């Protein structure tokens, strides 16, 4: 045993060798000792490759020199950098024999006992073999030096190793030229001192195992704070706190809406409501009123932007005739919810009756309830209607008390003359309003069929606990109406983008919400919802699928 202790103690990471060759019997005995080392599951995963070629040694040396420079630059201390450069850390060309010790990852293709907790157990087995080889060489009067300062990808490529063979490093083998004063070389050179005795501590108290979150459990506000649990789950992901920005806010909101830490977006739908507006007859738009009918036909034929984006992102699309000034054929794939063939012009009187107003809310709710019954839990709202930016501008001003001129924008892109006329027409219409400030009366006087149907639909979406995807300016005004009737719906709403319509940013600020996207969109149709949905789904994906620091064995603290 005394002899064994001496061998163990004299085992050195050798960097200085004599020119004496390594006899075949010596290396074979050492490799046999490596083969006798314990291996997880008796896998025989350790492989050995011998290098005697001077050309290969030279190529390996060049790899070392390249990485050695990078290693030296890891320290900011100039003195330590100089001390490092003075060290002899390899003897690749001087050693008579090179040895590459590898482990074979392909053994994991079969059931391997002992690797369930960590696939790296096969690597640890290879390290045991390396240690046995080292001890055998020491006992025979030879030694070995481990070179790991290499680009392993290039190293494998240089040696022609298969993808599934992973090297521990390059080992220099030969007869040692020095005993380093019977101590490790780095200790001899005062780089670092090794402690005389090992660290040993008995564990006498166990730490209770933290139970994983039951990710199928449904949380209820009265018994648990789902928000806190979701935040803890996000903070435990392998990322700096808050580093996914808006995605984290979305994940938190969606988890709270569905009251689960594993939310899913199921069968997303976008519903586009179309209607005509009497105010369009006063030239407030760059397009004639008939474009509403033409665009609905385009939707039905699949040629509009919303069709393209819904197809791209696997979103079901529905088109609603809420009040277009046209009789569509009965055989079209169109949801008929027509209240009338367009509203009246609020420049001369009420846009609709109280009965028509109530009909808008009920028809919009009915459409969304039907979508919810299909199993969908996510609905986006879009619109089409020549003149509807004018209607939305007036409603925004009335419901928020923001000056009307700050609520009027270019709409479909009118020129300066038309814009100026639009402002005068709308201002005059509001000034001529003699009704009360009661919400329902204002909505009936200035409303639009598609805007009010969207408002009713958004209320129904909230009652069905669906995610409400809000498109641009006009849809946000529809949401504002629903919000005035029930402020709680804002918990379910995701505002997909901030449009180029100048009033939209002001309205989002009024609601104190942040949009997902800033793309300068001003098309309507629900296009912002369709484009934003993949980002919203990314928030759900990272929450459900991204590893935690614990599960990935990644350290989250210094």
UniProtKB/TrEMBL annotation:
**Associated pathway:** Nucleoside biosynthesis; alpha-ribazole biosynthesis; alpha-ribazole from 5,6-dimethylbenzimidazole: step 1/2
UniProt domain Nitroreductase: residue ranges? 8-175
Q: Which InterPro entries match?
A: BluB (IPR012825), Nict_dMeBzImd_PRibTrfase (IPR003200), Nict_dMeBzImd_PRibTrfase_bact (IPR017846), Nict_dMeBzImd_PRibTrfase_N (IPR023195), Nict_dMeBzImd_PRibTrfase_sf (IPR036087), Nitroreductase (IPR029479), Nitroreductase-like (IPR000415)
Transmembrane regions: none
Q: Where is the active site?
A: 525
Q: Which Pfam families match?
A: DBI_PRT, Nitroreductase
Q: Which GO terms describe its molecular function?
A: nicotinate-nucleotide-dimethylbenzimidazole phosphoribosyltransferase activity; oxidoreductase activity
Q: What is this enzyme's EC?
A: 2.4.2.21
Q: Which UniProt keywords apply?
A: Cobalamin biosynthesis, Glycosyltransferase, Transferase
State the reactions this protein catalyses. 5,6-dimethylbenzimidazole + nicotinate beta-D-ribonucleotide = alpha-ribazole 5'-phosphate + nicotinate + H(+)
A biological process (GO) of this protein is: cobalamin biosynthetic process
Name the domain of life this protein comes from.
Bacteria
Which HAMAP family does the record associate with it?
Answer: CobT (MF_00230)
Q: What does this protein do?
A: Catalyzes the synthesis of alpha-ribazole-5'-phosphate from nicotinate mononucleotide (NAMN) and 5,6-dimethylbenzimidazole (DMB).
Recorded family membership: Belongs to the CobT family.
Q: What is this protein called?
A: Nicotinate-nucleotide--dimethylbenzimidazole phosphoribosyltransferase
């Amino acid at each position: 045993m005394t002899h064994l202790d001496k061998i163990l103690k004299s085992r050195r990471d050798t960097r200085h060798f004599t020119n004496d060759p390594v006899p075949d019997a010596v290396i074979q005995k050492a490799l046999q000792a490596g083969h006798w080392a314990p291996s997880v599951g008796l896998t025989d995963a350790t492989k050995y490759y011998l290098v005697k070629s001077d050309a290969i040694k030279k190529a390996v040396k060049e790899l070392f020199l390249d990485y050695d420079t990078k290693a030296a630059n890891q320290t900011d201390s100039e003195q330590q950098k100089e001390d490092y450069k003075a060290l002899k850390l390899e003897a690749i060309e001087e050693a008579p024999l090179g040895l590459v010790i590898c482990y074979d990852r392909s053994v994991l293709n079969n059931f391997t006992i002992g690797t369930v907790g960590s696939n790296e157990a096969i690597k640890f087995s290879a390290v045991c073999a390396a240690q046995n080889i080292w001890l055998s060489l020491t006992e025979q009067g030879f030694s070995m030096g481990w070179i790991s300062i290499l680009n392993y990808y290039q190293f494998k490529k240089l040696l022609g190793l298969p993808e599934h063979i992973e090297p521990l490093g390059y080992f220099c083998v030969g007869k040692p030229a020095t005993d380093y004063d019977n101590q490790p070389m780095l200790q001899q050179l005062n780089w670092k001192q090794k402690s005389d005795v090992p660290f040993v501590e008995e564990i006498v108290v166990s730490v209770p195992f933290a139970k994983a979150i039951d990710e199928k459990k449904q949380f209820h506000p009265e018994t648990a704070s789902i928000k806190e649990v979701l935040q803890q789950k996000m903070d435990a992901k392998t990322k700096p706190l808050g580093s996914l920005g808006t995605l984290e806010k979305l994940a938190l909101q969606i988890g709270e809406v569905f009251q689960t830490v594993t939310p899913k977006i199921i069968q997303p739908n976008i519903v586009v409501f179309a209607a005509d507006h009497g105010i369009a007859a006063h030239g407030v738009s760059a397009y004639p009123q008939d474009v509403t009918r033409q665009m609905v036909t385009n939707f039905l034929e699949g040629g509009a932007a919303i069709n393209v984006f819904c197809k791209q992102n696997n979103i079901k699309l529905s088109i609603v005739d809420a009040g277009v000034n046209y009789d569509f054929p009965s055989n079209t794939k169109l949801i008929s919810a027509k209240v009338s063939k367009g509203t009246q012009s609020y420049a001369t009187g009420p846009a609709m009756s109280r009965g028509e107003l109530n009909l808008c809310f009920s028809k919009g709710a009915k459409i969304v309830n039907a979508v919810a019954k299909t199993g969908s839990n996510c609905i986006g709202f879009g619109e089409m209607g020549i003149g509807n930016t004018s209607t939305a501008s007036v409603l925004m001003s009335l419901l928020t008390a923001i000056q009307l001129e700050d609520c009027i924008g270019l709409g479909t892109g009118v020129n300066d003359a038309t814009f100026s006329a639009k402002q005068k027409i709308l201002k005059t219409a509001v000034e001529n309003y003699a009704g009360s400030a009661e919400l329902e009366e204002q909505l009936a006087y200035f409303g639009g069929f598609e805007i009010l149907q969207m408002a009713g639909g958004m209320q129904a979406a909230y009652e069905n606990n669906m995610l409400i995807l809000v498109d641009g300016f006009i849809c946000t005004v529809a949401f504002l109406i629903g919000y005035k009737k029930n402020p709680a719906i804002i918990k379910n709403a995701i505002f997909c983008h901030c449009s180029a319509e100048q009033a939209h940013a002001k309205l989002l600020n009024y609601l104190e919400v942040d949009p997902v996207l800033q793309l300068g969109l001003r098309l309507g149709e629900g296009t912002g919802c369709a484009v934003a949905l993949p980002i919203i789904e990314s928030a759900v994906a990272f929450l459900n699928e991204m590893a935690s620091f614990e599960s990935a064995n990644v350290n989250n603290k210094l």
